[in-house]
Design brief:
8 helices, binds zinc ion, 32% strand, single chain, D-Maltodextrin-Binding Protein, domain 2, alpha/beta, 3 domains, binds phosphoribosyl ATP, 285 residues
């Protein structure tokens, strides 16, 4: 099998989670300090460490076959690449923010205002869609200080917790797009690399599924089981085993993390006891 080349952010908010994903996929990578290229020891991939801004272009040009990058960057760079899979980390949004004390009634606020951003394309499209003529000031970093130093009236930047806006006296007023890390791919990956990509995506999906799901075990009286089964759809049907105590059963199933608390309350009401919730390492559907 030929080696699949994967572009990963060298150092930044995507780096650690990207490498952790490979580790969870059972792929061994020794990330020597300062190296820009590493080869995995037990899987046919080669990692290229790059700036996130360059990843869409390098994937388009086939310098890398696939890359891990934020959806915000994919949309801004607008390169001809294929989006393969959302990865569920580096969640954030691209938003418009204005000085906190300003009165805001709607997007008309931005008419003839100067807006600082590192996302001129996405912001331009947004203003066009809303029929607003604003002045876009493109800057490459520290966007949030632009209003404070008189460079702009407002900003359009990535927000995650919102604390950077807060400390700079700014207030989020519109969300332009939501984003998370994704895998992008070159549109013409050679047939000798396809099986490697398929194998990698299979493992990534198993890791993702496991993160979204929990294994649940509980005890209940036999007569409560049918009610409990309706609450827990599980992967197929739950496993039910008799307990040593007469009339009692143990039930095993899988629940989605986000439905978890809601289900726990329903289960307790239905008669479940001794509920255990256990992380799943890999989940193959
Ligand atoms: O050097 P290189 O160019 O590779 O890295 P970079 O500094 O350009 O990118 P980096 O590492 O900051 O971000 C990489 C990607 O992470 C982004 O493209 C997003 O997809 C995603 N991401 C997730 C974020 C954030 N969360 C985030 N909070 N990117 C940037 N921020 C910044 C934001 O620009 C602002 O300055 O964090 C600040 C806001 O954070 P909060 O938590 O205070 O709201
Ligand atoms: Zn960058």
């Amino acid at each position: 099998m030929s080696r699949l080349k994967i572009a990963v952010q060298k150092s930044g908010r995507l780096s650690e989670s990207s490498l952790k994903l490979f580790e969870e996929c059972g792929i061994k990578i020794s990330n020597g300090a300062g190296t820009l290229r590493v080869i995995a020891s037990n899987f046919p991939i080669e990692i290229l460490f790059l700036r996130d801004d360059d990843i869409p272009q390098y994937v388009e040009q086939n310098v890398a076959d696939i890359g891990i990058v934020g959806e915000n960057m994919v949309a801004e760079k607008n390169k001809n690449v294929e989006m393969l899979e959302q990865l569920g980390f580096a969640g954030c949004r691209l938003s418009l923010a204005i000085p906190r004390e300003e009165n805001y009634q709607g997007t008309d606020y931005f008419a003839n205002k100067r807006v600082a951003t590192s996302y001129p394309r996405l912001l331009g499209e947004y203003f066009k869609k809303h029929n607003i003529s604003a002045i876009i000031e493109e800057i490459s970093g520290s966007v949030e200080i632009a209003p404070g130093i008189g460079l702009a009236d407002a900003i359009c930047d990535i927000v995650s917790s919102g604390s950077t806006l807060l400390t700079n006296g700014l207030r989020e007023v519109e969300t332009i797009m939501k984003s998370q890390a994704v895998i992008i791919a070159n549109r013409t990956i050679s047939s000798d690399k396809r099986p490697v990509l398929d194998k990698l995506l299979f493992r990534i999906k198993a890791v993702k599924n496991s993160g979204e799901n929990k294994y649940i075990l509980l005890n209940a009286p036999r007569e409560a089981i049918s009610g409990i089964c309706k609450i827990l759809p599980g992967m197929k049907s739950p496993t039910i085993l008799p307990l040593a105590e007469e009339g009692w059963c143990s039930l095993h199933s899988v629940v989605k993390e986000d439905e978890f608390w809601e289900r726990i309350d329903q289960l307790k009401k239905a008669g479940a006891e001794g509920i255990l919730v256990i992380p799943i390492e890999k989940m193959i559907m």
